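Q: Focus on the shape:
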Amino acid sequence: MAADSAGLPSNYEFWMQKLSVWTQASTLETQRDICLHLPQFQEFLRQMHETLKEMDSNTIIERFPTIYQLLAKSCWSPFILAYDESLKILIWCLCCLIKKDPQNSRESKLNSWTRRLLSHIVSTSRFDIKEVGLFNQVLGYAPTDYYPGLLKNMVLSLVSELRENHLNGFNSQRRMSPERVRSLSRICVPLVTLPDFEPLVEALLTYHGHEPQEVLWPEFFDAVNEAFLLKKISLPTSAILCLWLRHLPSLENTMLHLFEKLISSERNSLRRIGCFMKESLLPEAAACHPAIFRVVDEIFRSALLETDGAPEVLAGIQVFTQCFVEALEKENKQLKFALKTYFPYASPSLVMVLLQHPKDIPRGLWHQSLKCISEMLKEVVEDYGSYGGPFESWFLFVHFGGWADITAEQLLMSEAEAEPPEALLWLLAFSCSPGAGHQQRAQIMVEVKTVLGHLTKLFRSPALSARDLQAAAEENQGGDPRPPACQQLVRRLLLYFLLWAPGGHAIAREVITLSSVAGPQRSQPKGSLDLKYRVQFCRRGAHNELKPQTDALGQ
């Protein structure tokens, strides 16, 4: 067999042995083993087709004499035919065996055998129903007419039974047993991607019995979540919400899938990130239930710490929060849950101010709102109030990144002679250096105040040059070097200046070139390239810490 399998996937012999066992026995254990291995077997079939399509039929027969046995065994297994795209891949494999111009009787017989097998898997249902012959002979129904209706009625019957089971409550005489519900979820594992089974999958996800332990099979949750992530299944948000509340690993895998999208491209615009967020259904689900929001928020927090504030993670947090607030306003005209359940470690009054989108506030009142936010944050950070420490306050503030942008805008566009407001300087310094002490933050504010004085004078300059802008941002000669947080804040102010100042766009490329040549090389944030593996680490911590909360909130 080793020689026969040359050129085919290395586990060819393993699957031949598996198929022999599967076709010789029909015990419950065998069925479980088939369902467990179906995803791997489908991948094997896919690899096998890639190998066969490169050969002519004579070469296939000469080198792989057992290939007909393998395909025949596969085509007679209803489990394999029912799973995802296996039926389609088997058809591709069989088509590779047909010789267009048979030269002898042996080739003609093989062609005929292959066509019969193709006819069998195309026309026969995925279920072995003995009554088909009766319907064909007496009632005149063909399998293609009979089976769709039968399948639809079977699924609707099971859905109805599950829903009735939920309504009956403790009426044990009319309730579906937990063992049967669990068995049903296990049977559905290889069938979740079939459109006809979507109502049953939804009914299982939204089913709630009165058992102390979860009755649905874990592999069922995994299969549904994988199908959802790969867009092979369409389920309402209510069903996805039940999936994530009942099976925390599915929610964690969804977050990991989202992070992979965020770091897959260096040019992810905020609009594109917003599309990723809405497709994931995470903001909508988080708005429906605080438990989802708390888990998602905790994973974002862990990823932010593990990557030293990678820009991809910061952008993801801010876009997620924006989509979450929109969903919260849409779904909860009257909040079903208090804001305290979403932000348990934050001042409720601060949350209320931050939740207001700047565009919904008159421009003339922005300064007043920023001053209010600054005073509230300063009270918690420097006076050690009752709502967490500096990091908790900063983490809450970065959710609403628009306020930090407006702070910089208000400072840059103020009159050159005017003294920068202390509250806004503090807020800007805090946004870039949450861990700084009182003295260090005061030093940052002095440095930034000096740079702002130069930039506001240049803001309305009729002849703006890159050299002038670079000189305005340089450190004082002979002075101590700026702390890293201050350097980062100055770079940020330069970026805002180029975005908003008249003529800023025209000199942007030259300014960036001068800064990259003159300034120190900035290293990548820790973990920005291996974010996937760090998030996997974060997931374990979030799972252990938040599982009791999810269980409690999900009841």
About this structure: The chain has 29 helices and no strands. Residues 1-7, 125-141, 520-555 have pLDDT under 50 and may be disordered.
